[in-house]
């Protein structure tokens, strides 16, 4: 298969077609009777910098060339006739993407699905209506919102901006790390709910990550949601930024009121696009996009589908992504399974080489896993993690995030000098090869041989 044949520049045989026809035909041309080959995968991601060992898919995701080609066609279709695109193409095409997402996550109806820019936007939508409830007196000042200590930084800031400022009492669930079992998470979560209900308060919202970002841990969201129902928590919002394309999602089974995930991280969409699922029993009338357009009041999905003139193409390529993933054996389920197996294998290989632990057991990771870095590197602060990450990028051309874990509890007579305080978060996506992780292993080993310590790095 010639993987470039769908590029607008290469489609000489389609020169008689309009861009509109190409948008509807490009997906058909992607289909192949045989599974995608390794050379075809390399071609799909040939726009990646070939010098870089890119083991950080979790931060920004990745988009294959065929999907970029589909996006370019949508962009050209808008630019050639914006009025026709707006009145006759945009809403129906976004609806088609919503219908695909609805099936992927097992939502009851397409009306449950809205498409937004990213999970941070979805969080603002949910938290905005919680803030209004406090401001308008429907919630009492001091009622609680519970979130995980590992919640994404932007979501924490959103809770501060929308909820704490309006009078909500914010409680963080202090989760252990490294973590060995779901039971540890459940125990700490119950403690936080008890704290939230103390002194006659009510817990109005629980914000639960499906997969935490840093450190990355797969959270038992179904069980935590069930506990919330038993304990009388008003609403449950699952921040699953890393989930779609990474783990199985069944929103009906999970049972949360709200669930969001980015499609540009692990589902091969270009940036940026996410969905927000809203359970029908939730207060849908109180949910509004934070950018107010003339669609205000027509329902969240309609409001989100038009927030002014901008590039909506990332939201329109979801059907093309389906065609891309179906070129792989087992489709998206097969991709998820292989990514998980490979990241565990690579994580174990690195941990064995460095004599360090993993941050979680394999069943508590997705396509990302935390690997301890040798204590001799001298990681003693978050600032050190950023300096070391920059050093790995500039000297070794390796891209990987690093997490700092303060030496709180040193057990079994281990001195703080031997305590693992730095963990690398490695990802595995279909474009990764074993050499990416071998390069990382050898880079760290070389730093150790050279007597490297983070104190040697200057601030950039």
TrEMBL record:
Region Disordered, residue ranges: 1-40
Residues of the Aminotransferase class V domain: 92-281
Record bears the keyword Cell inner membrane: no
Coiled-coil residues: none
InterPro entries: Aminotrans_V_dom, PyrdxlP-dep_Trfase, PyrdxlP-dep_Trfase_major
Keywords for the protein's UniProt record, in alphabetical order: Pyridoxal phosphate
Family annotation (SUPFAM superfamilies): PLP-dependent transferases
UniProt cross-references to Pfam families, sorted A to Z: Aminotran_5
Signal peptide from the UniProt entry: none
Protein name: Aminotransferase class V domain-containing protein
């Amino acid at each position: 298969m010639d993987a470039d044949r769908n590029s607008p520049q290469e489609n000489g045989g389609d020169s008689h077609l309009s861009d509109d026809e190409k948008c509807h035909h490009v997906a058909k041309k992607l289909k192949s009777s045989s599974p995608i080959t390794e050379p075809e995968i390399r071609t799909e991601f040939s726009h990646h910098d070939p010098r870089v060992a890119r083991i950080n898919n979790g931060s920004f995701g990745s988009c294959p060339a065929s999907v970029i080609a589909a996006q370019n066609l949508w962009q050209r279709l808008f630019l050639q006739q914006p009025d026709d695109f707006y009145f006759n193409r945009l809403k129906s095409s976004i609806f088609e993407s919503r219908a695909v997402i609805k099936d992927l996550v097992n939502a009851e109806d397409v009306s449950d699905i809205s498409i937004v820019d990213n999970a941070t936007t979805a969080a603002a939508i949910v938290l905005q209506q919680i803030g209004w409830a406090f401001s308008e007196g429907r919630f009492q000042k001091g009622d609680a919102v519970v979130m995980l200590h590992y919640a994404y930084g932007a979501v924490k800031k959103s809770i501060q901006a929308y909820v704490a400022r309006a009078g909500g009492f914010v409680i963080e669930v202090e989760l252990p790390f490294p973590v060995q079992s779901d039971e540890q998470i459940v125990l700490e979560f119950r403690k936080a709910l008890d704290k939230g209900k103390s002194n006659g308060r009510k817990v109005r919202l629980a914000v639960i990550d499906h997969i935490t970002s840093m450190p990355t841990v797969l959270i038992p969201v179904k069980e935590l949601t069930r506990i919330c129902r038993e304990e009388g928590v008003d609403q449950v919002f699952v921040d699953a930024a890393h989930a779609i394309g990474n783990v199985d999602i069944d929103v009906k089974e999970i049972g949360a009121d709200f669930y969001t995930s980015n499609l540009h991280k692990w589902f091969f969409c270009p940036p940026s696009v996410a969905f927000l699922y809203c359970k029908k029993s939730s207060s849908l009338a109180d949910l509004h996009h934070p950018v107010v357009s003339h669609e205000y009041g027509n329902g969240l999905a309609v409001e989100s589908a038009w927030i002014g003139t901008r590039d909506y193409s990332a939201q329109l390529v979801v059907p093309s992504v389906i065609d891309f993933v179906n070129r792989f054996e087992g489709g998206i389920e097969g991709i998820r399974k292989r990514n998980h197996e490979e990241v565990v294998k690579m994580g174990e290989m690195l941990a064995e080489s460095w004599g360090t632990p993993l941050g979680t057991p394999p069943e508590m990771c997705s396509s990302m896993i935390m690997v301890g870095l040798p204590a001799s590197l001298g990681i003693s602060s978050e600032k050190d993690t950023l300096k070391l990450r920059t050093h790995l990028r500039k000297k070794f051309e390796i891209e990987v995030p690093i997490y700092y874990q303060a030496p709180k509890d040193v057990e079994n007579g281990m001195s703080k000098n031997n305590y693992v305080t730095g963990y690398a978060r490695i990802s595995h996506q279909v474009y990764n090869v074993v050499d990416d992780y071998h390069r990382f292993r050898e880079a760290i080993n070389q730093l150790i041989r050279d007597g490297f310590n983070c104190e040697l790095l200057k601030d950039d």
